[in-house]
Amino acid sequence: MNIYKRIKAKTPVKDKFKGKILTVLSAISLTIVASGIIKDESLLLIFNIISILCGGKAFYHAQKVLK
Q1: Residue 8 domain-assigned?
Q2: Helix pair angle (41-62, 13-35), 10° resolution
Q3: pTM here?
Q4: How far apart are CA 61 and CA 55, in angstroms?
């Protein structure tokens, strides 16, 4: 099963919930970085890392399928 079919397949409820929460956290941190509210370079780096990690974990939970 390829990635696209795995993401479109039925996902367990607990993984779906975790994926949604992580997607929201990733979007919020990426919006903060892109908006220019924060000028400190170290905080920008931290928010970038948060958005990458949360996005990756959301993608991981989206691939889980019911057997």
Answers
A1: no
A2: 150
A3: 0.82
A4: 10
**Residue 2 resides in a domain:** no
SS (H, E, C) the chain: CCHHHHHHCCCCHHHHHHHHHHHHHHHHHHHHHHHCCCCCHHHHHHHHHHHHHHHHHHHHHHCCCCC
The pLDDT tens digits along the chain (67 residues) read 677 888 788 888 888 899 999 999 999 999 999 999 999 999 999 999 999 999 999 999 888 887 7
Distance, in Å, from the CA atom of 10 to the CA atom of 30, rounded to the nearest integer, reads 28
Residue 48 lies in a domain: yes
